[in-house]
């Protein structure tokens, strides 16, 4: 009937929006642009201001969003998630802008903790895209790149929806990031610092700290967690230079809760510093909004305690149990975050193994992208004693009807698979298994299927085929997607998976890999 036609039209209109958005997608080329422009950061911010004004938003309007601006190398997303949940627990209407998305691009822009709906996304997308497209010719044909566009869209959504506050997570760095167009945030935060995006931010902790400290604003309170000595010295210098009051957060143990022991909704010991940073950010925001001289910072009231306990942040230290198969998902993609992932996985998997009814087969599903040191991350994972190490690119499924939200136009499939084979080789070398010079990707139906190896490593062309092989029909959610056809010798390798009482799968190395896996494992996330 008419309702079904309208629904179908709405879905197509949303898909059109996402496909149009993907034409702006340049993560790889945007990074190159940032590298070119980094000698003159003002060029970037001026360009961003121009795009913002073309979209009908002034920088002054952003002052009314009562922004909490957060950067860091590790834990900035979790810190934002804790902060947003705490302030939502107080009854405020929250906006939250984060990146990257796991399954759907709408996840990046949240109202009251929920990704904006398809209709809202579509409506606001075309409003902003239309204004920018109409003014394109008058501005040398320029359109903002993917991340810049989404940042403008987020600001537009939050202004239109009249949120009480916006929690804004920096994309890359701080000083030159397009979110740093914000002039008057209410409070700033810097989570744990480490080495990542070295081609843009520099290859030392000091250089990275300088970039991150670029979000400090004169007279705006800022907080950071305990940092390496050299990074902390740089942050303090930056704060002094900008006239920004900077405090270091206390340990979580130093807080006194009026209402029983503290429980965090996010697993892993490393979340404790993120939670402390979130408490300082939300408390400072509350003081400015409505609690001048109010609650003692170290005494936590119910809203703060429940906010910390109720925080969810998918794809980070997340456990999913589907019958005999348990998935441990973490988007760790730097050495420090992989160390934290390893600690969490070791403890959590051990608990699950103690409760298992029989032998457990342990599988690693890994991919890493960009300039990340895959070999070093894989070396950290070797002591976990995986029975299989499986590698695949961040392609959700090897069919042409791939989800538009998951598409990446910047890296060729050939390059992705080459990277997977390199990762497999690194794993084998760490295991002192040598390198089989005869490795050939098997071809079936025009697609490489798996690499034929005598050892316990396999390479698949997509996330779905990797998950189907790992689970051997024992996960009902995946089994509903059909059976993976493989050669007999590859099927024979899976005997251990079929006979185990339980299969434990660690999925890590890339947030995009985790997102692609969640698309298959949690179908609700794709709706």
TrEMBL record:
GO terms of biological process kind: one-carbon metabolic process
What this protein needs as a cofactor is: a monovalent cation
Going by the record, the broad EC class of this enzyme is ligase
Could you say which EC number(s) this protein's record lists?
6.3.2.17
What are the TM regions of this chain, as residue ranges?
none
Provide the gene name from the record: FPGS
Q: What is this protein called?
A: Folylpolyglutamate synthase
Binding positions for ATP? 316, 330
Q: Which GO terms describe its cellular component?
A: cytosol; mitochondrial inner membrane; mitochondrial matrix
Q: Which family does it belong to?
A: Belongs to the folylpolyglutamate synthase family.
Q: In which pathway does it act?
A: Cofactor biosynthesis; tetrahydrofolylpolyglutamate biosynthesis
Gene Ontology terms, MF aspect: ATP binding; metal ion binding; tetrahydrofolylpolyglutamate synthase activity
Q: Which organism is it from?
A: Anabas testudineus (Climbing perch)
